[in-house]
């Protein structure tokens, strides 16, 4: 049942239907929790659950829910720390919530694991640029305050 809901969620996502895909991922997660038993989960179940959390995070990013996306990406990483797409999605969510340092840390971690990850490299440049702009604005404001 979990695999069927996951396959349905993935099909809905490919069709561009983020809302229904998110609901399908959430249902698959509920079923995975019921079928999973008492933690700690065996590696196969933990991996599947991590994939479900990462998929739900992707949908939530598209739906403009960065806090929920960050939480689900974090859960995926707790289950499978090497999950690069979950880390990327958590970084995107952090950037959307203006946590530029957190976003940069996630992108840098991805690039340590996979130096050729082009999307992470682009996002890291964007986040660092946004942080520089933010810091420059703050310096100007503080300069006026103490001038």
UniProtKB/TrEMBL annotation:
Gene transcribed to yield this protein: Fkbpl
Organism listed in the record: Rissa tridactyla (Black-legged kittiwake)
Record's protein name: FKBPL protein
SMART domains: TPR
Organism classification: Eukaryota, Metazoa, Chordata, Craniata, Vertebrata
Gene3D superfamilies associated with the record: Tetratricopeptide repeat domain
Domain of life: Eukaryota
InterPro entries linked: FKBP4/5/8-like (IPR050754), TPR-like_helical_dom_sf (IPR011990), TPR_rpt (IPR019734)
């Amino acid at each position: 049942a979990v695999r069927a809901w996951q396959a349905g969620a993935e099909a809905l996502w490919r069709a561009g239907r983020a809302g229904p895909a998110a609901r399908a991922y959430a249902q698959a997660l509920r079923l995975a929790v019921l079928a999973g038993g008492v933690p700690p989960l065996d590696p196969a179940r933990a991996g599947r659950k991590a994939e479900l959390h990462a998929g739900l995070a992707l949908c939530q990013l598209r739906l403009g829910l960065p806090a929920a996306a960050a939480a689900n990406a974090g859960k995926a990483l707790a289950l499978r720390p090497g999950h690069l797409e979950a880390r990327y999605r958590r970084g995107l969510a952090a950037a959307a919530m203006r946590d530029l340092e957190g976003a940069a840390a996630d992108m840098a971690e991805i690039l340590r694991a996979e130096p050729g990850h082009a999307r992470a490299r682009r996002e890291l440049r964007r986040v660092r640029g946004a942080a520089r702009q933010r810091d420059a604005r703050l310096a100007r404001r503080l300069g006026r305050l103490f001038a």
